[in-house]
Write a structure and sequence with these properties.
This protein is of the alpha+beta class. The chain is built from six helices and eight strands; from the N terminus they run αββααββββββααα. It has an eight-stranded antiparallel β-sheet with strand order 1-2-8-7-6-5-4-3.
Length: 163
């Protein structure tokens, strides 16, 4: 069972902006710390056999320059990979392209901080209507899944999570 109040309090969320060549973009950052080693959390985030246990089934070529596809969701290209510290990829969904960057860092007490930036060009009208949800609303669910996975809990059921 998930302690919802605890999970909500464990996650840090930030909203900002970033200037890209094509203009200003919105940045949503979400992070949480987990028990485990850097190598284990890296493996959970990059191993196609483990990713579906906490996120979504993934297919494709999970290496630098390779393309990936999350079942029923986004796909893209892996643009940068610095094991076991970070990776960056495009996030292509609904005819739009945005970018994600995942960073892992060691914290005291054998904990690992997972931090994800999602960067997107969002029209002012869309931002006014949806706020940070215009960049993506599923990241909190992903962190819940990763928390369960890293604590040895049962794998997430993607259909149940989507519901």
């Amino acid at each position: 069972m998930i302690d919802v109040k605890h999970q909500i309090n464990e996650v840090r969320r930030e909203v900002g902006t970033k200037i890209l060549e094509a203009g200003e973009a919105r940045v949503v950052t979400i992070s949480q710390t987990y028990e485990g080693s850097l190598d284990d959390v890296w493996d959970a985030c990059t191993n196609p056999e483990r990713i579906p246990r906490w996120f979504l089934p993934v297919s494709g070529d999970l290496r630098l320059g390779g393309r990936y596809q999350l079942e029923g969701n986004a796909g893209g290209t892996i643009e940068r990979c610095d094991p076991p510290n970070s990776f960056a990829a495009t996030w292509e969904f609904g005819g739009e392209t945005s970018w994600i960057e995942v960073r892992l860092s060691e914290r005291p007490g054998g904990r690992i901080r997972f931090e994800l930036d999602h960067v997107a060009h969002v029209a002012d009208e869309r931002w006014a209507q949806f706020g940070p949800g215009a960049v993506g609303v599923g990241w909190d669910l992903a962190l819940v899944g990763l928390a369960r996975h890293m604590s040895g809990g049962a794998p997430m059921d993607p259909q149940q999570g989507a519901a």
